[in-house]
Amino acid sequence: MVTHLNYCDDVSPHIDASVTEIERAAFQLRRLWAKPHLLQRLREQCGQGGRPIQLSSLLVIHAIAGQGEGRGEVTVGAVADYLDIDPSTASRLVGHAIDAGFVSRTPSPVDARRAHLRLTESGERVRRLTDEFRRRFIARLVADWTDEERSMFAGLLGRFAEAAANYPMEAAELETSIEAARADDCAP
């Protein structure tokens, strides 16, 4: 069953309706990261003394874990690339994760101008708990799907995510897309 959002039912006549459904579904998937139950459970289980665990810290933890899997040094630049954000934003988010005790920073053995990032024991615990929470949550969502449906969905979603991550969106192309959307919006 597809749940339709009512935030914008106007669809450009030039865009296939399935593209609109994919866009809406992709927006909803952000909830896998920011479920209030997950953040509350993490506060309780990770000894944060009632301090909220920020979504940005979860993203930094995920980025460091994803980059650190045998790929060499993890730097602020690698976190910025992984999260597709500006290096100054990544630096600020990494700083917050360090202050929260999830990440440690040491001088790089390769280049003294850079810092090597690692998850602390607390950061590893948060990563394990969030991974487990999301996997159990997804398992419940697809529990009544056949093995074939789950496999097909996993393949297509992975393919979609890979394409989205590797699509070279240039500023000029983005501006053209925005202008086209404005033109469609203003069309009689």
TrEMBL record:
Pfam families: MarR_2. This is DNA-binding MarR family transcriptional regulator. The keyword Disulfide bond does not apply. It comes from Actinoallomurus bryophytorum. InterPro entries: HTH_MarR-typ, MarR/SlyA-like, WH-like_DNA-bd_sf, WH_DNA-bd_sf. Keywords: DNA-binding. It comes from the Bacteria. PANTHER family: MARR-FAMILY TRANSCRIPTIONAL REGULATOR, TRANSCRIPTIONAL REGULATOR, MARR FAMILY. GO terms for molecular function: DNA binding; DNA-binding transcription factor activity. Residues 19-162 form the HTH marR-type domain.
